[in-house]
Write a structure and sequence with these properties.
This protein is about 40% helix and about 15% strand. It is of the alpha+beta class. The chain has two domains: about 80 residues, Cytochrome b5-like heme/steroid binding domain (Flavocytochrome B2, Chain A, domain 1); about 120 residues, no CATH class. It is globular. The site of protoporphyrin IX containing FE has 21 residues, from helix 2, helix 3 and helix 4.
């Protein structure tokens, strides 16, 4: 059972998370998500020390470098309590360049340059991006399948709770449903952030990402239920 139900997760600033840096209350940030590892850190297979060291900080790079299997990513979901937001005074937001312009500038100066922080945060497997691109270029017809049915049959996901299931046997066990949801959420939150930078008054709800999973177009929304993945159409 997750510590906090996906619908109850909250938005935290980096400053708020930084206060939780002791064994009594230990939080870490990974891929813009906030994890409460207070109860878990002493059981962490990599040792309590590494988590204490990263307490209150962004441990995305450290965790990615240390974890060699999909197991940690699948367990993390349990400890997620929210995601990171940037709170800025409105006039500071106005002064910033529009996102599109900034992106164009970055593209021009890209060769040899360091990748931006945002690009690093959005690092997702190429196959995921390709899935979305493929999905967007195909005609769709409606489906009434449930999300569980869709991911249960997918050959790129497996069910960690039931590895002997049809999906577990036929799947390549590369990424699980949970891992995919985590990736989608990180991507969606970055998009949400971009839109708010340009239009601070824009509502959060309704911003989401389409993903192509085994013949189905799936939608994950940033509004209300992080972690939700709904099949919305069958792809021809
Ligand atoms: C909720 C957060 C985390 C969970 C659920 C988790 C889970 C795990 C698990 C299951 C393992 C053993 C399996 C494996 O090595 O692939 C592991 C190992 C390890 N983790 Fe984590 N981890 C978390 C966060 C972190 C963070 C933030 C760091 C880095 C600072 C970290 C560093 C390590 C290290 C160094 C190992 C040992 C790797 C080895 O022995 O090869 N973990 N973790």
């Amino acid at each position: 059972m997750p510590l906090v139900a996906p619908t109850q997760r909250k938005a935290y600033t980096v400053e708020e998370v930084a206060k939780h840096n002791t064994a009594a209350s230990l939080w870490v940030i990974m891929n813009r998500k906030v994890y409460d590892v207070t109860a878990f850190h002493k059981k962490h297979p990599g040792g309590a020390g590494v988590l204490l060291q990263m307490g209150g900080k962004d441990a995305t790079a450290a965790a990615a470098a240390a974890h060699k299997s999909i197991l940690p990513a699948n367990l993390m979901w349990e400890f997620c309590i929210g995601h990171i937001v940037r709170v800025k005074p409105p006039d500071e937001v106005k002064k910033e360049e529009p996102v599109a312009k900034a992106a164009a500038k970055k593209k021009k100066s890209a060769p040899g340059g360091e990748p931006g922080r945002r690009d690093q945060a959005r690092r997702s497997p190429p196959s995921f991006v390709e899935d979305v691109e493929r999905m967007l270029s195909r005609p769709t017809i409606s489906t009434s399948k449930s999300a569980q049915e869709v991911v249960g049959r997918s050959s790129i996901v497996s069910n960690p709770e039931n590895p002997g299931s049809e999906a577990g046997q036929e799947g390549k066990l590369e990424r699980t449903f949970t891992t995919i949801m985590e990736e989608m959420d990180s991507e969606i939150m970055a998009l949400d952030d971009d839109i708010h930078k340009e239009r601070p008054s824009a509502p959060s709800a309704g911003i989401g990402l389409l993903c192509f999973l085994q013949g189905n177009a799936c939608w994950s929304s940033s509004g209300g239920s992080h972690g939700g993945l709904q099949p919305i159409a069958k792809v021809a």
